[in-house]
């Protein structure tokens, strides 16, 4: 289990890094496109590049954010609940995420394969293939799903022990 967890962490970090590099390149392409457009020579494909890179940024960061437990959640009730109830809420959140991202992975993979088979591309000035972004979506969803499964195992163990509650330190910090 530890080996799988470390592998997911490394892949998640790599996904975030690749998404960050892609965002950086997309930013420069966008700036260059704006500047060169002022002189009547826009950079063709900058828009299409930024569209595909956004998939990397969003889906590449999902697993890493889950590892850090930094996804947005409403803590109003969570912080008032006891450890066992917090563990139960964590388990329910894991199960909901597994169901949603399992469906997303299933359909995302089917769409990626279909996109590859028809050589789907943008219809702009530069023909930019869409299947890499679709595979990035499927990869990010799969990585996130793996992390959710690992978290579910950990949260079920905490629930069984009755020692759940991941935000005790954060709650103490907020009370100061």
Short description:
With 176 residues, the protein is mostly helical. Helix content is 76%, strand content 0%.
The fraction of residues assigned to DSSP E strands is: under 5%
Low-confidence stretches: 168-176
Mean pLDDT: 88
Structural class: mainly alpha
Question: So how many helices?
Answer: 5
Instruction: Tell me the number of structural domains.
Output: 1
**Elements, N to C (H/E):** HHHHH
What's the alpha carbon Rg, rounded to whole Å?
20 Å
Summarize the amount of helix as a percent range. Answer: over 70%
In whole angstroms, how far apart are the ends? Answer: 37 Å
How is the main sheet built? none
* Number of DSSP E strands: 0
General shape: elongated
Keywords:
176 residues; 5 helices; elongated; disordered C terminus
Q: Any overview of this molecule?
A:
The protein is mostly helical and 176 residues long. It has one domain. The chain has 5 helices and no strands. The chain has helices at 2-38, 46-67, 83-117, 131-161, 168-175. α1 (2-38) runs antiparallel to α2 (46-67), α1 (2-38) packs antiparallel against α4 and α3 (83-117) packs antiparallel against α4. The longest helix is centred in the N-terminal third of the chain and has 37 residues, at 2-38. The protein is elongated and about 65 Å long. It starts with a helix and ends with a helix. Mean pLDDT is 88; it is low at 168-176.
Can you lay out the helices and strands and say which pair or pack?
Elements: H1 2-38, H2 46-67, H3 83-117, H4 131-161, H5 168-175
